[in-house]
Amino acid sequence: MSGKPLLVTIGLLLALIIGSKSLYIVQETERAVKLRFGEVVESDVQAGLHVLIPFVNKVRKFDGRLLTLDSRPQAFLTSEKKRLIVDSFVKWRIVDVQKYYTATSGDEFRAADLISVRVETQLRNQFGSRTLNEVVSGEREKLMADVKLWLNDPTKASALAGKTLEGAAALQGVAGSLGIEIVDVRIKKIELPPEVSESVYERMRTERERLARELRSRGKEVAEGIRADADREKTILLAQAYKTSETQRGLGDAKAASTYAAAYQADAEFYSFTRSLKAYEQSFNGNGDVMLLKPNSQFFKYFSDPTAAK
Q1: CATH code, 67-191
Q2: In what order do the strands lie in the sheet with 39-45?
């Protein structure tokens, strides 16, 4: 290859490299600033294809979407000086790219630290002005809304609260100082400290056990009453049944006696004879039975004289 084509090739390669370094793309989900020797020359580069001067300009891109900061659980005191462990998270986004870059150098972790400090301060203030019942249920939604307002617009928040803030810095929210907007503040969980929780659970357990014992005692009392009523009903039913059976037995015995009497009156001799035979059968049933009677006893009258009944 001769010298001229080689120089052309090298020139084309250099042009290609410089051209690739001169173009950059900003996505729809990104925010960007253009720098010139470290100084911001374009504070909010719009999405699309752009040109820069290589080695002179530099572009810093940041995530322009809604971001989440999940803070670590913190201990706060209520107005009653009760300690609570609060777990919360924050939704935020960049609204002023230049201020965000100036305040954080474009470091998202640095931004998270700065936001965490401000959120923790406002949560501490809001918890400190409310009771335990208010922060748990009564004013929980209002508490989160107040924290958000104090972070974004301290001037408006102080006016609503009837307070006066001193100094321009005190009136500057996160948008003015960090170039971001707090979209939402949410409290995920509020718990008592472990040492307090254990005593609370123990007290709850004791109360439930006491209630259980009381309910069991009432149940036993009701059961005893039901059992006593059942025993009383049983006794009454047995007595009525015994009365009825005895009445029926008496009626049966009376009817049997009447039948026997009628039969005896119909043929007294035959009745006397059958009664004697039955007495003989029962008396001489055993092999070792011994009876000492006079031969002329009435018991043997049918043995000596079959016509004794006449």
Answers
A1: 3.30.479.30
A2: 39-45, 30-36, 57-63
Phi and psi at residue 179, in whole multiples of 5°? 75, 25
Alpha carbons 24 and 49: distance in angstroms, whole number = 6
* Angstrom distance (rounded) from CA 173 to CA 181: 9
Q: What pLDDT, in 10s, does the model give residues 217-269?
A: 999 989 989 999 999 999 999 999 999 998 998 888 888 888 877 777 776 77
Contact 127, 86 (CB under 8 A): yes
Q: Cα separation of 60 and 293, whole Å?
A: 143
Domain residue extents for the chain: 3-63, 67-191, 275-310
CA triplet 157, 73, 188: central angle to 5 degrees? 70
Beta strands in the chain (DSSP E): 23-26, 30-36, 39-45, 48-51, 57-63, 67-70, 74-77, 83-94, 180-191
Number of neighbouring beta carbons within 10 Å of residue 264: 14
For 85, residues 6+ apart whose C-beta sits below 8 A from its C-beta are 73, 74, 75, 190, 191, 192, 193
Q: Which two tokens stand for residue 296?
A: 């002329």
- What CA–CA distance (Å, rounded) separates 46 from 49? 9
User: Per-residue pLDDT tens for 205-219?
Assistant: 888 888 998 999 999
Q: Is 57 helix (H, G, I), strand (E, B) or coil?
A: strand
Q: Please state whether the predicted TM-score (pTM) of the whole model is above 0.70.
A: no
- Separation between Cα atoms, residue 140 and residue 158, nearest integer Å: 19
- 40-45 contacts, C-beta under 8 A, 24 or more apart: 40/98, 40/101, 40/102, 43/96, 43/97, 43/98, 44/96, 44/97, 44/98, 45/97
